[in-house]
Structures are given as structure tokens and as C-alpha cells.
Amino acid sequence: MRVDVVSIFPGYLDALDLSLVGKARRDGVLDLRVHDLRDWTTDRHRTVDDTPFGGGAGMVMRPDVWGRALDDVLGEGGSGRTVLVLPTPSGERLTQRSVEDLATADRLVIACGRYEGIDARVADHYAGAEAPEVREISLGDYVLNGGEVAALVVVEAVARLLPGVVGNPESLVEESHGTGSKGGLLEYPVYTKPAEWAGRPVPDVLLSGHHGKVARWRRDQALERTVRRRPDLIEALEPAELDRGDRAVLARHGWFLPAEGAPVRVRVRPGRSGDADALAELAAATFPLACPPELGEADIAAFVAENLGAARFASYLTDARYRVQVAETSGGLVGYTLVVLPSTAEEPPDAEDVAALVPDRPAAELSKCYVLPAFQGSGVAGALLEAVRREVAAIDVEGRPVAVLWLGTNAANRRARAGYGKHGYTTVGPRRFQVGEQPMEDVVMALGLTAEPGDNRR
Ligand code: JD8
User: Fold this and answer.
1) 339 with 220, same domain?
2) Is the peptide bond prior to 194 cis by the omega test (within 30 degrees of 0)?
3) Which of 15, 228, 336, 380 is the most exposed place for a label (fewest CB within 10 A)?
4) Where's the N-acetyltransferase domain (predicted)?
């Protein structure tokens, strides 16, 4: 690849004589040429700038000088794909993906501006031409004094992708930000000898020799770092590239994968009075989906109107006998739970058959646990159940910690039963009841809350 850099400070690029880029130049893999813009000035002061039209501070670089320089440099090269790279704070953010694209070109010409920048007609002039392609790029949202630093970055980032520059091309695939398997995540932490430094040991797993565990640990570290430092990258992750382990790490940090699309930040929090309308809307959207087919639409609509309206939720949110948890995204509520607490420590569940199946007291009912279809199987329901367990396990009724959480779920709803089972609920027996004229069969499941010896739940 040939790269030409034009600058009024050509010495700035001397660093590219060093290290891998220097070797690539000596090996002929990279033909890097640095030009002094002043070679294309015509006055004895070698002037490259002038005052800005429209007034204002500073000086602007002249288009005619740049035009002569770029016409000459662009004219030197053969055919093939040429990209004119114009570093500017107002450019598109340079990313590994755009670097990978630049690395497929035959030639790059990088124009380093100074002062207040280059007259805007230069970019327009070359962008209007058949060739070269023009890329206005920025390194990031901070202000530098010129384009030279960006030229150093572009040359190093592109050169190391050229065949034969980096010793083990395998490591390129492994790198973060790239399109390789680790693409889109930050690097995991790395360690080397001594195994103990400043009282700090190396993580045991890295000394285990167990490659599978090491790979999993490194992946988890990369995910956790990315969640903490670059949540924007999590939103850009390709769901198909996330395995079960990845999804578990993301879920632990509040990121869940909906049925369609990229990971979403879901916050689980206690319901508050302002949630009533959104909860009623969510309940109306989710309750019918969990109803067995034999239940008629009319019965369902009647039940929703009677029991799941905004007014009912407003009462749940302000009445201490009820606890509401909600799962919320930036787009609104996607899940909720409702727990009914006993008024007294010995108050039995309101259905006799349940009271017999759930003897422990105080007993609280997980009355509602619903998640929008797009988030079913994403782990959001599990996060809600974990929040419910933590919240209810911390509640005393007449000074006695709530001993058990019980729920009734449709016997035919295998997914729900499996989900509750995964979170510690065990089936304690059937529960039969009527909806209108329709006989229904639920299973009752229960989760013991009070600490057994060695059980650290409390
Ligand atoms: C090119 C002139 C300086 C910028 C007045 C300070 C890139 N990420 C980046 N930040 N800054 C640059 C950059 C700065 C440049 C030039 C790139 C040419 N300046 C100007 C506008 C405000 N001075 C950059 N890539």
C-alpha cells in the first residue's frame, strides 16, 4: 500500500520510522511518503494560510496551495482505489471498522491541516471528483492543534492490518473492536510474571492451564469491562455472536436480549405511584397471552377491566400490603410482578386448597409475574423473580420474616413452570378454580424464604 502524508510539519511523522510501521516500510509492505505543503507555495514567505472570510480568530489554510499539492500527489499514483483522508474535529469518528475499510485501499493520501483548518472548498472539490474517495475523519471528541496526530493514528492502525506486518495475524482476529470473534468488546485484562506483584496475585484461573476456563474468564472480563466502560458497544453487539455464558454475564449487569435485536439495558426497580397507567397497559398486553385457550376473549377482557385497570394498580402501588417490581427499558415497562403480603403473620392464603399446600407462615403470594413476549426467555423474568425474592425476604409481618412465597400458574404453561423452577420454586400441588363457567387447573409452586442452616438467602 502507498500512503502519502502532506503537512507543514513533516517531521511530526518521523515516529513512523519506528517499530512495526518502520519495519513494514523497510520490508516494502508500506510505501509511506511525507511531503511538506510549503513545497507548493509560490511566495517567498511560503505562505499557506490567510485570514478567514467572515472574520473570526485565527487563520485558515489556503485552498490553492492545498489544491496544487494534492493534485500533484494524487497524480503521482497508479490506478486502483485511492482515498483522500482529511482529519478534522468535525469528521466521522474513526473506528476499527473504518480502518479495516481504509486498509483495503491501494493508496491513502492524508492532508494534515493546521490553524483553524483547511478552506472547506478543498474537501468539496475532491469529493465532487470521480476519484479519489474522500473521508473526513475525527479521532474523537477533543480538540487537537492539527491533523498530524490523526495521520499517525491512521497510518499505524491501517499498516498493522496489512499482510505480514503483525507477526501473528491470528492475534488480529482476536482483537477487540474488530470484526473478529471478540469484535465489539473491550480487551480483557492481561498478566505476566511475576505471579505476585505489589501484593497482587495473578487470577488463579490463568495459572490453571484449563484453556476452556481461561477463555470463558477472559470473555467474561471483556464483557464486564465493556458493560462498565462502553455500554454503547453492548448495544451494538450481534446477538448471534453471544452464547449462553455471554448472555448470563450481560444479564447479571442488567443487559438482556429481546427476541429481536441487540442487547437492551433493563432496569428492575420497585414500582412507584407514577407507574399505574403504564402497568395497566402492560397488564392488558400480557395477561391474555398467559390465559389458556379455553378462556374466552370476553372473560379475559372482563377480568382485565375488573382487575388490571390503572386504578387497581394505583391502589397496589400505594397499599403496603402489596409489592410491585417493574422491569424498565428506555422505551418503557417490559415486565412486572405483584406480591400480596399477608395482613397478619398467621393469615392463610385465600384459597383453602392452597393454604393446605403451603403450610409455612407468614406466606406471601406472587400474584402476578408478566413479561412482554419480546423479552420472554431473555432473563428479564428471572431478574424480576430475584428482585421479588430479595424484597420479600427482607419483609417481616408482625415481626416474623415472610417464610414462603407461593404462586399459582396454569398447569399447561410449561415455560412458566420451568422458569419458576429455575428460580427455586417447587411445585407443591394442583389448584382447581372457576373462571366464569370455565373450570381451570393451576399448579401451586412455593419458594421457602427463611434461612435453613447454611442457607445465606436471608
Ligand atoms: C485537523 C486544524 C486545529 C481545530 C481550531 C484547534 C482530528 N479529533 C480531533 N480533534 N482535533 C482534530 C483536528 C484539529 C485540527 C485539524 C484535525 C486542523 N486543527 C483546529 C478546530 C478548532 N483548531 C482531530 N482528526
Assistant:
1) no
2) yes
3) 228
4) 266-450
Q: Is 419 annotated as a binding residue?
A: no
**Residue among 283, 288, 287 at smallest CA distance from 314:** 283
Mutate to test the pocket of ligand 1, among 6, 92, 144, 152 (most ligand atoms within 8 A of CB): 144
Ligand 1 pocket test: pick from 37, 85, 90, 145 the residue with the most ligand atoms within 8 Å of its Cβ. 145
What own/partner pairs with CB < 8 Å and gap ≥ 24 does 225-229 have? 225/185, 225/186, 225/187, 225/188, 225/189, 226/184, 226/185, 226/186, 227/253, 227/255, 228/253, 229/186
Task: Please give the pLDDT value at position 174.
Answer: 65
**Per-residue pLDDT, 458:** 45
- Single-letter amino acid, residue 95: T
Residue 385 lies in a domain: yes
- Cell digits of residue 236: 451494538
Q: What's the residue count for the chain?
A: 458
pLDDT one-digit tens code per residue, 390-411:
999 999 999 999 999 999 998 8
Burial status of residue 64 (CB atoms within 10 A of its CB: 0-12, 13-18, 19 or more):
middle
Q: What range defines the domain where residue 15 resides? A: 2-167
Tell me the average pLDDT across 315-333: 97
Are 236 and 273 in the same domain? no
